[in-house]
Amino acid sequence: MAHIKAVILCGGSGTRLWPLSVPSRPKQFQSLTSNQSMLAETASRLHSRTGKLSFDQPLIVGSARHVRLIQESVPNADMILEPFGRDSAPAIVAAAIACDPEAILLILPADHHIKDLHAFEGAIATGVPLAEEGKFVTFGIQPTEPATGYGYIKGTRADGSAQAVERFVEKPDRATAESYIAEGCYYWNAGIFLFKARTLIEYAERENADIVKAVAAALGPDRGQVMALEADAFQRSPSISVDYAIMEPASLAGDVAVVPVDMGWSDVGDHASVYQVTSGGDADISVSGPSIAHDGERLSLSSTGPLLATVGVKNLAVVASSSAVLVADLDRTQEVKDIAKAANGFSYGFLLPAESKVMIKDWLINTALPRWADHAWSTKWGGFKETLAFDDFSEQGDMRRLRVQMRQIYAFAHAKVLGWNGPAQDLVAKGIDYLDTTCWREDRGFVHRFSTSGSVIDDRMDAYDHAFALIAYAWCYRAGFLPDAKIKIKKIVSLIDERLALPDGGFRDDDTGGTGLRSNPHMHMLEAFLALFEAFGDDQWLRRAGEVVSLFEARFFDPYHDCVLEHFDKSWALDPIKGDRIEPGHMYEWASLLAKYDMYSGHDTLSWRRRLIARADQKGRNPETGFAHNIVSRTGDVIDGSRRLWPQTEMFRAKIVEPGANGIDEAKAIVDSLFDTYLADAPEGFLMDSYDSDGKPSAKAIPGSMLYHMITAFAPVIDGTAA
Q1: Is residue 720 within 8 Å of residue 342, measured between CB atoms?
Q2: What does the pLDDT look like over 664-710, one tens digit per residue?
Q3: What stretches of 13-103 adopt beta strand conformation (E)?
Q4: Which H or E element spans position 114?
Q5: Which among 80, 356, 96, 342 has a CA at the least distance from the CA of 211?
Q6: Cis peptide leading into 19, omega within 30 of 0?
Q7: Cα–Cα distance between 45 and 111 in angstroms, integer?
Q8: Are 29 and 39 in contact (CB under 8 A)?
Q9: CB-side neighbour CA atoms (13 Å) of 496
C-alpha cells in the first residue's frame, strides 16, 4: 500500500468569486459546493476508498493571516505559514523541504471540486509507480468543452493511458481550444501533482537554486506542526509558479508524465463554475442562502445575509454579501476579477469623479510633497520642524515633539510607496538618525519633548508617541528604507509592553503613572498594529490589533450616544471633568481603522462604523458649512465650535471607506471645500490648520504634524488597493 503525504496549497485570493471571496475570507474558506469550506472538502478526500492508498496527515501551506481559518477547516493540521505569497513554486519547495525526502507528495489546490472520488483515487494509484521512479506526475482532466479559462497539457497519445508530457500550454483562445479537443491528446491542467520530495528538491536545486536557498533559510532548522516562514528570507525567493519553475523545463527533459482522468473536476474559478457544480441542469436555478426566484431560469443566486429576490430574469449570477452585491451575466463571470481588484481595496475612493482624483493626486504628489521636502527639515538644527511660518517657512518656537518627527518620517516613507520620486529616502534616513542620536534611550524608549538644540524637555515615555514610532518604522520597511526595522520594532514593542501595558489590557498614557487613561493613544496603537501587519504579514500584529478593538467595544464605545469616549480615570471610570468631551474627528478616524481591521480579520465592525459616522454627521458637524467641529458633548452640544483641518480629513476618509448612501457625493463635496478653504488660504502646497467658530482662519503657523493627515486621507484615492 502506497503512503501519500498530501500538500494542500491554501493561498490565492479567488477574485473572480467576489464578493463572496474577499481578502479576509477568500474562496478556499467559503462553502461553495457543499456545507463544508473548500479547504475542508479537499482535506476530506484524503482517505482511501479502495484500500490501495494510505494518506498521512495533510500539510497545508497558506497565509499566516489565515491561520485561524485553516484551523477551523482542518483542526490540528500540519501547517507552513507564508508571510506573503510568492506563487506556487516556493510554497511547494517549502513543503518538500519540510517532509521526509522519500515521501511521495500529492500537491492539491485547496479550492477545487472533485465529484468522482473513486476515479480520483484510481488516478493517484496509477501515478504512484511513476513517482517512485523519479518522475513528476500531473493529472490531466479529460476536457468536456473547448474551455478558454484553463491551461492545457499536451500528451503523446489520445488513448487515455499514462503518458509523457510533451508540453504545457497557456490558456488558449476558443479556436485553438477547439483544435485541441479535435486532436484528442490535450488535457486540462488541474494543477495537481505527484512526486517524491527528493525529486522536487534535486530538480529545483539544479534549475532554480535561489528558490531552495531562500525557502530553506525561511523555514529554519526547526520542524514542528506549525512552521512560519521568516519574511526577510522568504522575500529573497523568486515569485514563480511551479509550472514555469519546474514542470515546463522538466517536461522538455522527458521527466513529466500525465495521467488522464475524468473525475468530475472543476476549479470553481468563477460564479459560472459554481452554477455548473451546484445546478441540476442548464435551465436550473441554483440557490444558496435566502433567495427567491420568480419566473426565471439559469440563475445562480447566493446570499450570506440579505434576502435576494429576482423576477423574470435569466442567465445571471446574483451574489450578495454584507458589503456588496454583484449582478453578472453567467457567461461573463470571469470578468468579475477586474471589479474585485478595486472593490477589495481599503476604500471606495476609486468611485470619486475623475477630476477629484486628479486634483488630489496632483496636489499631494506634484505640489505638497516637493514643498514639504524643501522646507520641513531644519538645516540649522537637524530634525523636522515642529511648525513652519507662513512667510518664510522658518521654524516657530524651540520645542519639538517626538510624534511630529515620527509623522514626518512616516509621511515621506508612504510617499515613496505611492510612487513619489522625491528625496524620500534621504529625508527618512536623516530623520531616523536624528532621533536615534537625540531622543532614544535603551531602557525607556524615546523622550516625549525636546528642544531644537536636542536638550530634553520632557523625558516621559509616551504611548501616543511610540504608536507613531511603530507606524513610521512599518512604512519605512515597506518603502525599503529600513532593512533592520524588525529589530527596532521588537525593541519598541517590548518597552511598550514592559512600561505601558496595563494588567487587564490597554495602555497607560505614559510611564509616569500620573495621568488618567485615554482612548486616543489606543486608536493609534490600533493603527500601528495594522501597519505592522500590512508590512510583515505576521498574524501576531492582527491579534494585537484585535485586542485594541476588543477594548473599543468594551470601554470606548458609548452605545447609548453612539460615540467614542475619550477620557477616563485610572480605573477606567469616565473622567468626571473631561468625560463629556467628544471629538467628531476621532469618531470618523475610529470608523476608518475599524474598517481596515474588518477587511483583514473578518471581524464584523460594520454596525460600530455606521453608528459612529452617523452620529458624527448628526451632532459633530456645522449644518451650515458641513465642516466638523473640534469638540462636542455626548448629547451634541458644541463645546469647541472652531475647526482644525484634521477632523475634516478624517471625515473625508470615513466617507470613502464607509460611504453609505451618499458618502461618495459627500466625499467629493468635502474635497472641494478643502481645496476652497484649508488649502487655498495657505502658501501653495501647504495648509491652513484651523478656523475659528466664525469661519475665519486662525492658525498662526503650519503644524509639521499635518502632512500625516493629508497622506492618510488622500493615499487611498491615489492607490485604493495599497493595503
Answers
A1: yes
A2: 999 999 999 999 999 999 999 999 999 999 999 999 999 999 999 99
A3: 53-55, 59-63, 78-82
A4: strand 113-114
A5: 96
A6: yes
A7: 13
A8: yes
A9: 25
